[in-house]
Structures are given as C-alpha cells and as structure tokens.
Amino acid sequence: MAKNKPLQIAKPFVKWAGGKGQLLNEIRKKYPAELGGRISKYAEPFIGGGAVLFDVLNNFEISEVYISDINRELIHTYLTIRDNVDGLIQQLSDYESVYLPASTENRKATYYEKREQFNRLKKGNEFPLEIAALFIFLNRTCFNGLYRVNAKGGFNVPQGSYKNPCICDVENLLAVSQKLQNIIIMCGDYKKASDFIDNKTFAYFDPPYRPLSPTASFTAYAQDGFCDIAQVELASFIDDMSSRGAYIVASNSDPKNIDEQDNFFDILYAAHKISRIQASRAINSNGAKRGKVNELLIVNG
Q1: Model confidence over 212-233: pLDDT tens digits?
Q2: What are the pLDDT digits (tens) for 95-104?
Q3: What string of H, E and C letters represents the secondary structure of 128-192?
Q4: What residue spans of the chain are helical by DSSP H?
C-alpha cells in the first residue's frame, strides 16, 4: 500500500452521534488491499464527523475524493474550513474567550443565545462564516455533541456540562483544512455520488442507523428521517455501485441486539459479506443501557 507521510494528522473537528473513531481499527481491516494503488479514489456520501475520511487521507495517496451529506450546516462547515479556516479560527477564538471564563449562569445564557442565533441564520439562503463557527461552538458545548433538529428544522439540543470544552482547536482545524484542499464537497442526497463512483473507487457508506427500538432513534439530524424504505433504497444503490466494480464498505446497527429473529440486514445484504463488531453505546438516555452492542460492517462480495 502506498502511504503518505503527512505533516499533520487531521481528526474529526466535531463530535457526532454514531461517529466511527472507536471502530477505526475494525473498519481499517476492511479497506481494499489496493487502496492508494489501483483504488485511487474515495467517496463518503454520509460524511458526518469524517473519522474514516481523515484516516484514509492521513494514510494513503488518494487522487480524487468526494464527500457529501444532506445536513446543510455540516457541509457549510466543511467548506468554510477548507476555504476560510483563518476567519473561522478567529471567530471561534472570540467565542472561546467569552465562554470559558464565564460563570455557569453566563455560560448558559451565552449558549442559548448562540443556539437562537444559529437557528435564525440557518433559516436563510445565505451561509455566512458565522454559521460554521456557531455550528462548531454548539457542537462543542451542547449535550453529548448531538446534532438534532425539531419538526421545524430548529437545532434543539440543550447545553452540556463540560468544564473546559475545546471550542477552538487551532492545530486540528489547520490540519483538516490542509486535508480538505481539492476535495469535492457536496450538500445533497447520497445518490449524487453516482457521478463520481467507478471501478477505481473505495466508497464508505455510514447512513443514519436503523433504530434498535422505537425510542432509540438518533436519525433526526435533518428534518427527514431514514426509514426502512430508505435503507432498502440505499442497499439497491450499493448494489448498483458494486456492479460498476467499486469497492464498498457500509455500516449499520445490528437488529439482533434486540431481536435475534430480526434478519432485516442479513436479507437485505445477503449478496455481500456481513461482519458483526462490538461498539460502545455512548448515547442513551438510560445509563443502565449503555454498553457494548454489535454493529454491522458490510463489504461487497
């Protein structure tokens, strides 16, 4: 495998529900053997926090990269880091200098003022730098780093209780900006990746997970959810991309954590190789239910 010797290691700049940082060692085992050689392109159409993206960029020579997501504010933040990281660092530094020294009461007031400002700005058609700065600020100071919206599209996560949150990670933002140069960054449905993916492409799909129970859904990072019909459509798209010769890895929840008889994904991806790996459930309203669960890694066969 042809590997880079990066000047700086880039890592996700936001916390993200379902982020893949803890599973990277297992996911790496599924990378194509020819990554950085014949497999010279990378696509990630549900980019989220980008743990797998940055692992690939830190370690392999990739000629073309495509990332996308339907979350407009997330994608705007990626674009801002790529194209105006200095301005973003200045804005975040200003937020940090006000928030960190403040009293608990003033921190709370600042958080909810920023949340209201973010929701007001995101209703518009323009995307100023401030949206990206607020996106990162709220992610770093909200409860568990969740991104959740209500039926009207308003970000509604309450303040977290972090004593010393890192709001402006200058070194990492610069490293991320460096890695994002010349990358195609799109806001939209995963199907748009069809124009990019070919037989030289490693594509990683990390969609909103199928909920393990009716009350366990964290898919509301956009106003539209990701139901079973959407999971079936995604599997069909993966089959189509596989038929082009692309190398594909996909992640999802394992329904058998709750119901051993639930073969939804085993049937849906019967033509491919399915591995079950252990992951820590980091986000659950019931502390007693946090712990190890199985997740699925699907590799096209």
Answers
A1: 765 544 444 444 568 999 999 9
A2: 999 999 999 9
A3: CHHHHHHHHHHHHHEHHHCCCECCCCCECCCECCCCCCCCCCHHHHHHHHHHHCCCEEEECCHHH
A4: 24-28, 51-59, 72-83, 85-99, 104-122, 129-141, 170-180, 228-243, 264-268
